[in-house]
């Protein structure tokens, strides 16, 4: 279900409705946005998750933006110049842009925001985006210059963080600031209120927005205890807009003319990342056997999701994707033969007792004739880290355990509730051999996707470092190249090497599902892999 960034996968209902005659946009009305993901602080320097991250583009503005096609377009900067050596970027700002408290937004606010992001003590999730920035220099009120340490053609895509007002944060504690929960930005909507008991947030239209005021007067974000309660609210017509619904709910709404439905391929994939230092799973042929032994389609079915099989770290529509790399097919017989050749023997003969198979995650109908493999006195066991807070990952892990039981591998879950638990002491004590996790794979930022497989990367949450000297060298070459065609060739070579190495069992790219009520118009530009939040200012309610 992968599409290009310039297209949208519509359900048949929404596609049919799009053929109707266009209605002239009207001003007024309220959008009710339902979520089961409670808000956290609303600060572009610090916020990286929850519904709050989706509100940033409504309340604040960024230096540049990513549009619905994945292209970099003007934001606060109306234009920019790039030096011939690719080291200097000079941005010319729109004039008379004002924060919601009336203060003018200037180059000083741009510099201030990115200096905060780059300051290690602030622990900003976005700091890795600024690692190649040498400095920011304010040339005048409406002109600011960025100097890079070395050329980096993708830098504009790293400058999409929204800008906060210097006059409200300067010389104040960033993490405890009053305005983290009462945000003042310069975006198309102004913050009005936040009911802390119900986690309901209300935004109102910024009538003085420098581009054009939004069509909507208000946006109300309502938080529900769980997806079931959110579904009930949607059915009772208490909510107009929901993101990331289940496939089951999507199929219901897709047949209901009251809604428009969308399905969008996500810029992420799931994989089982191996510990490269583990003495057992250091064996590449063993890792390949596991890839042949896992039914990706069955896993997607287990979590009630659509998706496309992954053959590596790059998005299928990115320049780094190599179409010649084909997925290792699901073939449990071949997997068992590969394990036999690696001297992992099935020590049991005939039928295995039902209780023993079920204990290892198998079934008497599919895996009863096979036992757990052994080499010498050692059982073939995979100790898998699983996020216990994610119901989806737990269900995926159970399906993986059942698949592996069929080829003679015992899977033991090491459950954790927060990534902070995975300390060196924890790893030393429990000796995990693999980690079921999610990776980002941006269509337009191949260099970012490659970072997970670059040995010197210090990305947050990176437990183990895959090390391949050839990949490291190629990555260093590609990320500084100005010629995109040449860098594409290198990234595609990286793709081929990584998949052949199998440092992870690459599973699939999931598809997400979303819905809005049919009376909301101009919504299509939002529903793509980029979900540009500021396009909500163009939504309107048909009378």
TrEMBL record:
Cross-referenced InterPro entries: Peptide/Ni-bd, SBP_5, SBP_5_dom
Protein keywords: Signal, Transport
SUPFAM superfamilies: Periplasmic binding protein-like II
Transmembrane segments: none
A single cellular component GO annotation: ATP-binding cassette (ABC) transporter complex
Family: Belongs to the bacterial solute-binding protein 5 family.
Protein name: Oligopeptide ABC transporter, periplasmic oligopeptide-binding protein OppA (TC 3.A.1.5.1)
